[in-house]
Amino acid sequence: MKGVKELSFPVIGDFRGNLIALEGNKDIPFDVKRVYYIFDNKQDVVRGKHAHYNLKQVIFCPSGQCDFMLDNGEEKKTITLSSPDKAIYIEGNVWREFTNFSKGCSVVVLASEHYDESDYIRNYDDFIKAVK
Ligand code: TYD
């Protein structure tokens, strides 16, 4: 899907359990400037509901699961995030919505830029105008 790639992280496992190490410009295809995570989300809420003009992000769910809807203006796709070693890389202008949060779900986002509200498109009609 244009603007979206699925990533698979190497898992370092031994008899104690598993570990994943993520390095900027290596496992993550950009220099990570910001990390945020969402957790304790109510099951019936929708989070996200925005796109970005320039931001690159890698998004994954290290515990629990949720549905992640992606829309690049041409195509829509819903992916269930449920694995600590599977991530979504968004590098284009893509509308996204998180739904169906399980108990104990947390979503980690690695971002290429510091927080900048002017990079957000929070209105769906404005998003469609921007991608067309
Ligand atoms: P919001 O964009 O609504 O979160 P989501 O996309 O997960 O639904 O952000 C909630 C609040 O947090 C909003 O007031 C902006 C603030 N915020 C920051 O201060 N820094 C950040 O890096 C992010 C992502 C949000």
Read across the widest sheet, the strand sequence of neighbours is 1-9-6-11-4
Main β sheet profile: 5 strands, antiparallel
Over the alpha carbons, how many angstroms does the gyration radius reach?
A: 15 Å
Strand tally is 12
- The sequence of SSEs as H and E is EEEEEEEEEEEEH
> Roughly what percent helix?
under 10%
Mean pLDDT: 97
Pairing-aware structural class of the strands and helices? mainly beta
Tell me the span between the first and last alpha carbons: 16 Å
What is the strand content?
Answer: over 45%
The number of helical segments is 1
Ligand kinds? thymidine-5'-diphosphate
Low-confidence stretches: none
What sort of overall outline do the alpha carbons produce when their principal axes are compared?
A: globular
Write a brief structural summary:
Helices cover 6% and strands 45% of the residues.
Explain what this protein looks like in three dimensions.
A hairpin with a 2-residue loop joins strand 2 (12-14) and strand 3. The chain is 6% helix and 45% strand. The chain is mostly beta strands and 132 residues long. The model has no long low-confidence stretch (mean pLDDT 97). It is built from one helix and twelve strands. Strands 1-9-6-11-4 form a five-stranded antiparallel sheet, with no helix packed on it. The chain binds thymidine-5'-diphosphate.
